[in-house]
Amino acid sequence: MNTYNEWLKKLGQSIQLHRKSNKFTQQDLAKKSGIHLTSVQMIEQGRKPLTTRTLHRICDAIGVEVRDVVNQTSVTKK
Predict the structure, then answer these.
(1) How many Å apart are CA 78 and CA 61, to the nearest integer?
(2) 1 pLDDT higher than 90
(3) Residue 52 pLDDT exceeds 60
(4) Orientation of helix 37-44 relative to helix 52-62, angle to 10°
(5) Residue 57: CB partners within 8 Å, gap ≥ 6?
(6) How many CB atoms sit inside 10 A of residue 40's CB?
(7) Residue 48 gets which letter from DSSP?
(8) Higher model confidence: residue 34 or residue 74?
(9) CB 72 within 8 A of CB 17
(10) With bands split at pLDDT 50, 70 and 90, how would you rate the model's confidence at 21?
């Protein structure tokens, strides 16, 4: 797996962690952010790249700062 795909997966995991800690379902997040449920699912699985605008919409919807989500995504090269 390349570094970009690893980063996407970690970003999705971070989004999911913050979503769950704020007691949101994927459906809640989709509705509040205006992002289709399937897209939310694929983003959390690291299977769908997202724009910075989409990332901001997600973070605004769950009430976290973008930096808090992104700071949990470091990928180390082997």
Answers:
(1) 35
(2) no
(3) yes
(4) 100
(5) 33, 34, 35
(6) 28
(7) S
(8) 34
(9) yes
(10) very high
The two structure tokens encoding residue 25: 């379902």
Alpha-carbon span 3 to 5, nearest angstrom: 6
pLDDT at 2 over 90: no
Residue whose entry in the numeric block shows the structure tokens 């989500």: 69
Residue 37 and residue 26 in contact, taking contact as beta carbons nearer than 8 Å: yes
CA gyration radius, the chain: 12
Q: Rounded to two decimals, what is the model's pTM?
A: 0.89
Helical H runs in the chain? 3-21, 26-33, 37-44, 52-62, 66-70
Which amino acid type is present at position 21?
S
